[in-house]
Amino acid sequence: MATINYETDVVAWANQQAWLIRNKKFDLLDIEHIAEEIEDVGKSEQRELASRMAVLIAHLLKWQFQPDYRGSSWERIIKEQRKSLEFHLKQVPSLKAKLLNPEWQEAVWADAITIAIRETAIENFPETCPWTIENILSHGWLPMSAA
Fold first, then answer.
1. Are the CB atoms for 74 and 63 separated by under 8 Å?
2. Which of 12, 35, 77, 147 is least buried, going by the fewest C-beta atoms within 10 A?
3. Cα–Cα distance measured from residue 65 to residue 111, given in angstroms and rounded to the nearest whole number
């Protein structure tokens, strides 16, 4: 069996590695690249969680700071993001720990602010998130209008 190069065709390489595992040809496995790919799966799941959370928070910011623009589309996006996050956390429960990580929260907040600024042209958002994770993920909760 000819070895497929990871660098030139990752899909063919992955299929070959799966075949080798299923056929117990462990001595032929590309262990280093397999380990990298497994780590990348975890990173991808973390990026998905952070991205969805940033979109949700950005829409909550828009809801709070632009009450005149509130509408069913924003409400729908907020509901969809919450449902997607809930599903994602059920599928990958180990990600729940990320929600409590202050550094992760700061990074997500920064991404949410970037989205909100780009979509609203408002630049005076709070420096830190004023809401709890429980509020953010709570179905039906919406922030009050900014005074």
1. yes
2. 147
3. 17
